[in-house]
Amino acid sequence: MKLFGWKSGRDESRPVLSRSAAGAIGGSAFGEWPRSYEAQVREAYLDNPIAQRAVKLVVEGLGSAPIVASDPALLALATVRSGGQTLIETVAAHLMLHGNAYVQVLRDVEGGAAELYALRPERVTVEPDASGWPAAYRYRVGERVSRLHADPVRPEVIHLKSFNPVDDHYGLGCLGAASGAVAIHNAAARWNKALLDNAARPSGALMYDPKDGATLSTEQFERLRGELEASFSGAGNAGRPMLLEGGLRWQALSLSPADMDFVGTKAAAAREIALAFGVPPMLLGLPGDNSYANYREANRALWRLAILPLATAVLGGIAQGLAGWFEGAAISVDLDRVPALAEDRERLWGMVSGASFLSDAEKRALLEIQEVA
Hints:
Layout: H1 10-13, H2 21-24, H3 37-46, H4 49-63, E1 67-69, H5 72-79, H6 87-97, E2 100-107, E3 113-119, E4 124-128, E5 134-141, E6 144-149, E7 157-161, H7 175-197, E8 205-208, H8 218-231, E9 248-251, H9 262-277, H10 295-321, E10 331-333, H11 342-353, H12 360-366
Helix pairs in contact: 3-7, 4-6, 4-9, 4-10, 6-10, 7-9
C-alpha cells in the first residue's frame, strides 16, 4: 500500500534540498536586532507587551474556539491537557513564533495514540534520509537526544510548519519580520525610562569661564566629574540645588519637541508588530487607528484573517497525523458557535433560506447540516 507517496517513486523524485540558517530559527534579523530564536522570543514575547498581546489574542482565541471532530476519542485526545499544557494553544503559539510545531504522539501498551504533547521547536532537528525526505526527528534536551521516527502512517512526531520560500525542512515564523519593530519599540521604551530617570531632560553642561582665561587641571576636572556623578545625577537627585565655585556656571540643555516625540515612534512600531502577527491594531488599544469602523469589525477581521487560517493549519495537521489511528480523522472549528462570526453565519442562513429554487436537502448541504434520521 502506497500512502502519502512514501513508496511511489519518492526516492528518485526529490530534488537537492537547501537549508538556510534563517529557516532553522524562524527568521533572521540584521544589525543589532536579535538573530537567534531564543533572543527574539525574549525581546518580543517576554519583554514587549504589544507582541505578547498580539500572540495571545490569536492563540487564546483559537484555544477557546468550539472544536468538533469526527470521533469523540479524537476530540478528547486533541483537547485534553497533557502535563499542564494546552495542546492547541501551544502548537498555535509555536507555529506563529517559530514557524514550526512538533507534536509527539505518546502510545499505550497496545500501540494506540494515548496522549499528545507539543515539543519545543528550537530543540528539534530534522534528520533527512539520502533523498532529502525527513526520516526522523532529533529532540535534544541538554546532553540527552531522543530520536523519533517519521513514520508516514503512524508517526511518533507530527510536524506542522508554515511556508518558507528558502527552506524545505523548516517553516518561517513571524518573529523575524517583527524583530525590527520590536527592537524600535523596546529601544523607545528604554529611552523614555532614561529620560524620566533624568527629570525628563538631558544633562546640562558645566562651563568653566574664569576671567584670567585659565583652564582646569586634570585633577580638578576629574574631581568635578566625580562630584557631579555622585551627588547630582540620576532620578534620586532630580531638582537638587548645585553649589558652584568661582568661575563655574551651569548651562542647562533641552530637547526639541521633535526629539521628544517617542510616543509617535512607539505607536508606529507597535502597528508594525501587530501587522507582523496579523492582529488589527485597534484590538491592541493603539490610538489613532481608523482602519475598521468599530471594534466588532476588527474582531471579525481577526477571526477571518488570523485565527481561522491558523486553526485550519493546526487542526488539519493534527487530524492528518492521527489518521493512522482514526479512520477519516477530521478536526475543525464549529463556525456556528463562534460569537464573533454570528453575523456572517446569520447572513448566510438568510441567503440560503431565501433561495426558493433549492430543496431542503440542498439547503442543508450548503449549511453543512447533517440529515436527522
